[in-house]
Amino acid sequence: MRKIVFALVCALGALNASAQLLLPPPQRPDALMNAVTSEVIAILKKDLAAHRPTDVAQLVEGKILPLFDFHRMTSIAVARNWRLASPEQQVALVAEFRTLLVRTYSTSLSDYRDQEIEYRPLRAAAGDNDVLVRSFLRRPGAEPLTIDYDMENGVAGWKVFDVKVAGVSLVLNYRETFAAEVRAGGIDGLIKSLADKNRLFIYSKE
C-alpha cells in the first residue's frame, strides 16, 4: 500500500510539473502595457478612419480597467483617512474612485487624434515585484508627454497602482482634495462628494 501511495504521489507530482511547463511564461509588465495600449490605439485609429464614434466606455471597461488595482489606488489617495473608514465605506470609496478614473480615461480617449505611444526599456531586476513602466506620447508640434505606470506583481498578475503624467501622480493629485473633504464631512462626506461629481458627469454626457 505504501508503494502504491508513493507511486500516486510521484505521478501527481509529475503531472503538476508537466502542467507548469505547459503554462505560458508570465508576461513582462512593459510588454503587457504595450500590448494593451497597441490594441486600444488600433481600435481608436480604425474608428477614426471610418469616421465613426468609438464606444469609449466599453473600451475603457474592457481593455484598460482590468489592468488597475483600484483598492490600492484608493487607499493611497485617501491616505491615513483610509484606516478610519469602515469596510463598507472602503468599498464605496473604491467604487466611486474607480468611476472617477473611468471619467478621466474616457475623456482622454475621446480626445485621441492619432498620437503614438512608445514604451522605454524596463529597468528592473529579475524577481522585482514593484516596477516603473515608462512610456511617452508623441504629439505633433509638441514635446513628447511622459506617461509612467507604477505596477506591482500580485496574485492577479501585474496591476497598475499609480500613473504619472509629466511626472505628476494621478493618485497623489487627489490627496489634498480628499483630505479636505474628510475634514469637512467625514468619510461619508467624501463618498457623497465623489458620487455627486460622478453623477453630474454622467448626466452631462446624456
Brief rundown of the structure:
The chain has about 210 residues and is α+β, with helices and mostly antiparallel strands. The protein has 6 helices and 5 strands; from the N terminus they run αααααβββββα.
Q: Could you describe the 3D structure shown?
A:
By secondary structure, this protein is an alpha+beta fold. It is 56% helix and 18% strand. Strands 1-2-3-4-5 form a 5-stranded antiparallel beta sheet. A hairpin with a 2-residue loop joins strand 4 (157-165) and strand 5. The longest helix is centred in the last third of the chain and has 31 residues, at 175-205. It is globular. Mean pLDDT is 83; it is low at 1-24.
Topology:
Layout: H1 2-22, H2 29-49, H3 56-64, H4 70-78, H5 87-110, E1 116-119, E2 130-139, E3 142-154, E4 157-165, E5 168-169, H6 175-205
Antiparallel strand pairs: 1-2, 2-3, 3-4, 4-5
Helix pairs in contact: 3-5, 4-5, 5-6
Overall morphology: globular
Count of the domains:
1
Through-space gap between termini: 71 Å
Low-confidence stretches: 1-24
CATH domain fold name? Nuclear Transport Factor 2, Chain: A
The CATH architecture classification is: Roll
Strand content: 15-25%
What is the helix content?
A: 55-70%
Tally of helical segments = 6
Keywords:
206 residues; 5-stranded antiparallel β-sheet; 5 strands; 6 helices; Nuclear Transport Factor 2, Chain: A; alpha+beta; disordered N terminus
